[in-house]
Amino acid sequence: MKKYFEITNRQFCVMILIEKNYQFFLNACKKFLIEKRRKGKNP
Length: 43
Fold this sequence. Notes:
The chain has 43 residues and is mainly α.
């Protein structure tokens, strides 16, 4: 989880972490990373 926390937007992930819904946290952060990568390849 720390990897996702450091790579992604901190406030976004902290907010989800505070909710203590870890499965949602992981899914949301993975989705965020995939979007970020896609936007990086296609500006």
